[in-house]
Amino acid sequence: MSQASQRIASLAVSETLAMSQKSNELKAQGINVINLSVGEPDFFTPEHIKNAAKKAIDDNFSFYTPVPGYLSLRQAICQKLEKENGLSFKPEQIICSNGAKQSVCNAVLSIVNPGDEVIIPAPCWVSYIEMVKLAEGTSVIIETEIDQDFKVTPAQLEAAITPKSRAIILCSPSNPTGSVYTKNELKALADVLAKYPNIIIIADEIYEHINYVGKHESIAQFENVRDRVAIINGVSKAYAMTGWRLGWMAAPQWLASACNKLQGQYTSGPSSIAQKAAEAAYLGDQQCIEDMRQAFARRRDLIVKLASEIEGFKVNKPEGAFYLFPECSYYFGKSYNGRTINTSADLAMFLLEEGHVASVGGLAFSAPNYIRFSYATSDENIVEAMRRVKETLAKLK
Ligand code: PMP
Ligand code: GLU
After folding, report:
1. Which tens digits make up the pLDDT trace of 324-349?
2. pLDDT exceeding 90 applies to what percent of the chain?
3. Ligand 2: which residue has its CA nearest to atom 3?
């Protein structure tokens, strides 16, 4: 039968990628769509990183790479972890992959047995729940709202833990909310988790460098949970390298070995050229990160100001990443031209088709009353997009 397996048939399509594709299709028809759906830096990869990749081609880095990545890259990542995060890892504990997305999935598949529970504070990134599904685990969602700045409290966490809890996926700075946990907030969560030694902490830190409030804090710094944290990171966001596909995990040895075995049967080591580029990114001048961070900070201020002026939007001030996540339920039940908005997905589709601005409805992030706008685009695009959103939403009565 020409039918996908149950495992794949039950997976949801990635909504972020789907909305972006839809926006590109409309653009191909000649419609001037502003794409605030997918989250990726609009900057080009810095020159010194591109040059390292060109040199790698000329130097014949064309053979299979070690499954966990070149030792030189893993050493560079260990240096980064030591220098920037004060964390000591051995190269054997680092597994490089085809992007942070694969690293999260590797970790989930290597930790979760069928029926195990994975705690996921929501709003959460689209792929976590689907990855848990792939591992035949059960996602336990902790809901948070804009009034608590979308941050889970220690009491909420404790209430979600059961004897079946096997992992928690924490994302700070967060996609889709932009919230950043402070050191004290992370310590309070670590103190709860310290009481449950069976729970592995998957700390998705891919937005580490897109932080507007100061130094990045990792939950791995706390000794009482240190040996149970798998840090996920990569070059996609910090160095504007989304298409290069290079991410990594730094984890306890047993987990690194499990992911190594998984990759050995599934993908092998990541691209040789991308690895040499990533090595140059970590060892080279870090000014490029700061330049992009400053641009994102300016855009954050701009979009917060403009979105706050839109009737019916409740907006907070994100402290990291490049997403704005307004509450938009004010528009549910309203109509225009016989079209009624019942969900945030309806609203996102209305904004795309009627206002030519692509966004992503909140349900994809387990937060149905919200809508996500990525502001990793030019100031001009942000201004024009928010003008269109305001004008389009005003049609709804
Ligand atoms: N985690 C989060 C929270 C993300 O937003 C993304 C988006 N790309 C990823 C992981 C995956 O990153 P990569 O492009 O390195 O696979
Ligand atoms: N992480 C980005 C986003 O949330 C990229 C798309 C994806 O990988 O889901 O838009």
Report:
1. 999 999 999 999 999 999 999 999 99
2. 96
3. 39
- Put simply, whether the predicted model's pTM sits higher than 0.90 gets the answer yes
CB 178 near ligand 1, within 6 Å: no
Same domain, 108 and 252: yes
Range 21-45 average pLDDT: 94
Q: How many domains does the chain have?
A: 2
Give ∠ CA 20-24-26 in degrees, rounded to 5.
120
Ligand number nearest CA of 124 is 1
Tell me the three state secondary structure of residue 59: coil
Q: Is the beta carbon of 242 within 6 A of some atom in ligand 1?
A: yes
Question: Ligand 1 centre and the CA of 249: distance in Å?
Answer: 12
**d(CA 336, ligand 2 centre) in Å:** 30
Residues 240 and 316 in one domain: no
Q: What is the pLDDT of residue 64?
A: 98
263, 283, 303 — which closes off a domain?
283
In this structure, the answer to whether residues 223 and 199 fall within a common structural domain is yes
Most informative mutation of 23, 125, 129, 204 for ligand 2 (most atoms within 8 A of CB): 125
Q: With contact defined as beta carbons under 8 Å apart, do 68 and 74 qualify?
A: yes
Domain boundary among 283, 300, 319: 283
Q: Give the pLDDT mean for 279-292.
A: 97
Range of the domain at 356: 6-44+288-393
Closest by alpha carbon to 276, among 82, 107, 96?
A: 96
Interior/surface letters 77-90, b for 16+ CB within 10 angstroms, e for the rest: bbebbeeebebebe
101 Cβ inside 6 Å of ligand 2: yes
